[in-house]
Amino acid sequence: MNKGTVLTVDDDEGLQSVLKQYLEGDGYTVVSARNGAQLSDRLDAVELDVILLDLVLPDADGVNLISLIKSKTQAPIVVVSGKNDTTEKIICLEMGADDYITKPFEMRELSARIKAALRRVPDPVNGNEKSEPAKKQNEKIAVGEFVLDNNQFQVFDKKGKSLDLTTGEFQLLKELALAPRRTLSRERLFELTRDGEFDGYDRVIDIQVGRIRKKLGKEGVNIIKTVRGIGYMFAPKE
Prior knowledge:
The chain has 10 helices and 13 strands. By secondary structure, the protein is an alpha/beta fold. The protein has 2 domains: 5-119, Rossmann fold; 134-234, Winged helix-like DNA-binding domain superfamily/Winged helix DNA-binding domain (Arc Repressor Mutant, subunit A), CATH 1.10.10. The strands form 4 sheets. It has a 5-stranded parallel β-sheet with strand order 2-1-3-6-7, sandwiched between helices. The chain has a 3-stranded antiparallel β-sheet with strand order 8-9-10, with helices on one face. The chain is globular.
């Protein structure tokens, strides 16, 4: 059974070979690109399910390529980088990347990250997330003056305009909205929205909450409350 198509973007031929062998053995179809130009070609030619993006390429800055990818596909982006820099990670997540893993890494962890990214993507046939019950997915949840629509995997304003949330942002907001007036710790939100071991110093949840609040506009801070030292709470108006 084919689990999906993965595009690996990296100029390291040795790593490309290892990724291809492992991921194909794990049931994925693997397509590769070694530079920005090849990446652009693959985006136009192949229907992709997830993209593994290195930041250092011979003809382009990987961070800048995130915008190109987002303009051509909804496939989640997992940055795979040798840069273990918090600022770089924040920039990538703010640009729209769904996850970030630092080289060197264990293949099992990479596989888990890919599976988590795919679970956050809507089913192309049924229009809902692949891994959750249909009843839960068919719900529309009020988020202040906005509507969270599981069928379209997006949040809309009163005029029907999409807030253009990434898959990671949507999943995080949904988990908060499904637990109104309950404090969810950063660790719990991490467990609900991604695979891997939570690092107490990892700011990925805080970064995504900040981006969600910004997209919600003036209601953002009121709808998503910070519970100092613990996590966040979805606090809709009565």
